[in-house]
Specification:
Elements: E1 15-17, E2 23-26, E3 47-52, E4 65-70, E5 82-84, E6 98-99, E7 105-107, E8 123-131, E9 136-145, E10 152-156, E11 160-167, E12 170-174, E13 177-181, E14 185-189, E15 195-199, E16 204-211, E17 235-238, E18 249-255, E19 258-264, E20 271-276, E21 281-284, E22 305-309, E23 319-324, E24 327-329, E25 346-353, E26 368-371, H1 381-389, E27 395-397, E28 401-407, E29 412-414, H2 415-418
Parallel strand pairs: 10-18
Antiparallel strand pairs: 1-17, 2-20, 3-4, 4-20, 5-19, 6-29, 7-26, 8-9, 8-29, 9-16, 11-14, 11-16, 12-13, 12-15, 14-21, 17-21, 18-19, 22-23, 23-28, 24-27, 25-26, 25-28
The structure holds fe (ii) ion.
Length: 446
């Protein structure tokens, strides 16, 4: 997959282009009230309802809400809830079933299971961090889907969900409309938005960042200026699409770390029109325009931030979503792979396709690694040897897409991840070949 495969031309059918825009869209002409949110009667006998993603009084820049015009108000899509088995879905703070092992960790790809797993039952929590109760931190889930949701629907009150497709395509049928993603793309479903997920062409695998904190937004670019990195026009929101289905449906809610279920005699995806700036969206990571060094050294990996979930402390992200896409390496007299480092932030990494330059072996698509707070990491011995001796011509890193969920909080490893047979217990040995080269009698580089 390369940039050549990106469709040229205008916004694809079914979507509206822009990040954080206030959009308006209607599936029936005249369904949207004009010039007001809540008229005495709404056309077509619709109900008006607001969905608030921020406190009413949040500052303008972070204030998020949408108005939905729907067949029934959401109170008719929920009844009495019963708690259901949460499987291996875990939520921070998880003390009993998630530990903080001291050490760098890496796992091979998790095979797709033989049993039936929907988007909800297919969420396998690998790490948790922070505290969902206080709306801080995140969880990293492996997503293994073998079955479409048909009458089942879901919303997450604990966090927004950033879904990274790695294998197979997914269709998100949401209150706001339909979003399709393929490997190389992401979908973000805000907290509280009801949806169900269908498979398009067979089982799918991916990764999910469940963000308990502030909604993902674009990072400030500072001296980079107005362009490059993730450009706002490449984010796509769905146009309104509704279901008028009178048949038994189910709603599962993730709330306070548990799953609860309720039933109703109709589809909850009954929004005929909506307007506002709180909605699900997608983004093609191959449209990210990477910025880097064009003479020597390279900047901190934050230069690859696609989106950030800010915290109360400026510059200290609740979560950064960072990618390492196709790019040219051109720096002169420079060790080009990521340098060795220790970091106050903790780093969960995954690979969508290709090879990651710091770890040419062992880190494979569908796998993941965890470099927790202050734990040293960097290129393995082979990557160091190669990068230290290779002739420094311009090199295109092609067909590669790695990503990172980086958080200010330590990440706890769940019992599920700890027990996976795919865990590479010898991961730390990838650095054991880094030999001592120091010689006090020789000043020149060796
Ligand atoms: Fe790192």
């Amino acid at each position: 997959m390369s940039r050549d495969t990106i469709a040229s031309g205008p916004t694809p059918a079914g979507y509206m282009s822009g990040f954080g825009n206030s959009f308006e869209t209607e599936a029936l002409p005249g369904a949207l009230p004009v010039g007001r949110n809540s008229p005495q009667k709404v056309n077509y006998g619709l109900y008006a309802e607001q969905l608030s993603g921020s406190p009413f009084t949040a500052p303008q820049a972070s204030n998020q809400r949408s108005w939905l015009y729907r067949v029934r108000p959401t109170v008719r899509h929920t009844g009495r809830f019963v708690r259901i088995d949460r499987g291996v879905l875990r939520t921070a703070p998880e003390r009993e079933d998630a530990t903080q092992p001291l050490g760098q960790r890496r796992w091979g790809p998790t095979p797709l299971p033989d049993d039936k797993r929907t988007f909800v039952s297919g969420l396998f929590t690998a790490t948790t961090a922070g505290d969902a109760e206080s709306m801080a931190g995140m969880a990293a889930h492996v997503l293994l889907v073998t079955q479409s949701m048909t009458h089942e629907h879901f919303f997450n009150a604990d966090g927004e969900m950033l879904v990274v497709a790695e294998q197979g395509r997914l269709r998100f049928r949401t209150e706001f409309g339909v979003i399709d993603i393929e490997p190389g793309e992401i979908c973000v479903i805000p907290r509280g938005v009801v949806f169900r997920v269908e498979l398009i062409d067979g089982p799918a695998r991916g990764y999910v960042c469940e963000n308990y904190g502030g909604a993902f937004t674009l990072p400030d670019r500072g001296p980079i200026g107005a362009n490059c990195l993730a450009n706002p026009r490449d984010f796509l929101a769905p146009v309104a699409a509704y279901e008028d289905r009178e048949e038994p449906c189910m709603l599962i809610v993730k709330w306070g770390g548990d799953l609860h279920q309720t039933e109703m005699p109709h589809s909850p995806l009954d929004v005929v029109a909506w307007h506002g700036n709180y909605y699900p969206y997608k983004y093609d990571l191959r449209r990210f325009s990477p910025v880097g060094a064009i003479a020597f050294d390279h900047p901190d990996p934050s230069i690859f931030t696609v989106m950030t979930s800010p915290s109360e402390t400026a510059g200290t992200a609740n979560v950064d979503f960072v990618i390492f896409p196709e790019r040219w390496a051109v720096a002169e007299n420079t060790f080009r792979p990521p340098w060795y480092h220790r970091n106050i932030m903790s780093e969960f990494m995954g690979l969508v396709y290709g090879v990651y330059d710091a770890k040419p072996e062992g880190f494979v698509p569908g796998g993941f690694s965890l470099h927790n707070t202050m734990l040293p990491h960097g290129p393995d011995a082979d990557a160091f040897e190669h990068a230290s001796n290779v002739e420094l011509k311009p090199v295109k890193l092609t067909n590669t897409l790695a990503f990172m969920f980086e958080t200010r909080f330590r990440q706890r490893v769940t019992a599920w991840a700890e027990g996976l047979p795919t865990q590479q217990r010898d991961y730390i040995d990838c650095w054991s070949g880094l030999r001592k080269m120091f010689d006090a009698t020789r000043r020149d580089p060796r």
